[in-house]
Amino acid sequence: MTRKKNYGDVLYYVVSILLAIAAIIPFLWMISTSFKSRGALMSIPIEWIPKEPSHSAYAKVFGKFHFFQTIGNSLIISVSYTLVTLLSASMAAFAFAKMKFPFGDGIFKLYLATMMIPTQVTMIPLFVVMNKMGLINTYSSVILPSFFRPFAVFLLVQQMKTIPAGFIEAARIDGASLFLTYRKVILPLCAPTLATLAVTTFMESWNDYLWPLLMLSDSNKTTLPIALSTLNGQYATEYNVLMAGSLISMIPIIVTYICAQKYFKNGLMDGGIKG
């Protein structure tokens, strides 16, 4: 029995290492390519360590468009999108999980059913609404859809259902209002799940391409994914420049993950479906 268990452990670690290597190879290729000259890009065999490292690709990235302004646009949109999602989803989840009101369960199930509607189906109606409101070509048009995030609400509802009702009752006896209970009791207990949701929402917003492309026509409000797409030429692509830009765009996501890492694992576990 012990020998079989040892074999299972060895197989588990071997498979895990192989999967890790398969996942990291493209990333290593990106780093290597970003430091190559254009002539060394298609050399065979692949030069994993460039013979003549060059920073020219990074210089071209900063020269092709207003890079820092573009990063600033993406940060404004992504941070705002994330904060609005956390606030609106946590308040909605609190109502669904801890407040009793007529047809609450039915409304919640209907709300979750909207997750089955493809995003592409709602884009045209959303565009029409934003156009009628005069929000086209503004940050608000990209951020406002974050108020409607069924999966975020679902994730937080599962966490809030595990919070004993006695906590809320104790806060009520102490004279806390409903909003104070939400802010002082519920939110701290949901910190791991909120951190997980913050990381995933920030990543989604940071990498979003299609919706900002539809909403923002002003070049001064261009987000980073849209700017990076301009590095693809019609007849040829400078892959070293494209990889350099992609690597720089990953920095905020990596920093966000590092800052929330201690909550991330617990959030994934606490946010799971529980009875």
What can you tell me about this protein's structure?
With 275 residues, this protein is an all-alpha fold. The chain has 2 domains: 1-54; 64-270, MetI-like fold, CATH 1.10.3720.10. Helices cover 71% and strands 0% of the residues. It is built from 13 helices and no strands. It has helices at residues 2-34, 56-64, 67-98, 104-113, 119-132, 139-143, 150-160, 165-173, 178-189, 191-207, 210-215, 224-229, 239-270. The chain starts with a helix and ends in a 5-residue tail after the last helix. Residues 271-275 have low confidence and may be disordered.
List the helices and strands and how they pair.
Layout: H1 2-34, H2 56-64, H3 67-98, H4 104-113, H5 119-132, H6 139-143, H7 150-160, H8 165-173, H9 178-189, H10 191-207, H11 210-215, H12 224-229, H13 239-270
Helix pairs in contact: 1-13, 2-13, 3-7, 3-10, 8-9, 10-13
